[in-house]
Design goal:
It is a single chain. With about 150 residues, this protein is of the alpha/beta class. The chain has one domain: Rossmann fold, CATH 3.40.50.1820. The protein is about 30% helix and about 10% strand. The chain has a three-stranded parallel beta sheet with strand order 1-2-3, sandwiched between helices. The longest helix is centred in the last third of the chain and has 15 residues. The radius of gyration is 16 Å and the shape is globular. The protein starts with a helix and ends with a helix.
């Protein structure tokens, strides 16, 4: 997601000949969007993982505890980079995800819409973090999305 939202996306030094290199569309399957709120779940969902320590996935990315590295967490969060001109998004998330809170996808979707970006959010009611509950929507929704935004 960061490469799709980065302000200078698609602007290679010296220019590039040929087709555009910027991201044309994004399909996000339950991706973390805000490292500052990692591990903050709702609706009785309890995370399988610890998210804030230096040994967590997020802590290893940032180089330490999320409390100590809050500015880095903000910089590493796709939510921080949403703005006009971002490519269209299809965001898919399981309502019972116990790794990445579904609230992260909801906030990304709301922020994209507020910036005037084409965004679709699909929440799989019984879905967790990429399990069988995703079929068949996990296959049909991205195809329909790419057909719509890339083929016109």
């Amino acid at each position: 997601m960061l490469s799709a939202l980065w302000p200078d996306r698609g602007n290679a030094a010296g220019g590039v000949e040929g087709p555009p290199t910027d991201v044309q569309a994004v399909v996000d399957f339950f991706g973390p969007t805000d490292l500052t709120t990692a591990g903050e779940f709702e609706g009785g969902v309890v995370s399988r993982f610890e998210h804030r320590s230096a040994d967590s996935f997020e802590g290893r990315l940032l180089g330490g505890d999320l409390g100590e590295y809050a500015p880095a967490a903000i910089q590493a969060s796709p939510l921080s980079w949403v703005g006009p001109g971002a490519p269209p998004f299809l965001i898919m998330h399981g309502a019972k995800d116990d790794v990445v809170p579904v609230s992260q996808s909801r906030r990304l979707h709301e922020k994209l819409l507020a910036a005037g970006v084409d965004s679709t959010l699909v929440v799989i009611p019984e879905g967790t973090h990429g399990t069988a509950e995703w079929e068949p929507e996990s296959l049909s929704a991205p195809k329909a999305f790419f057909d719509r935004v890339l083929k016109g």
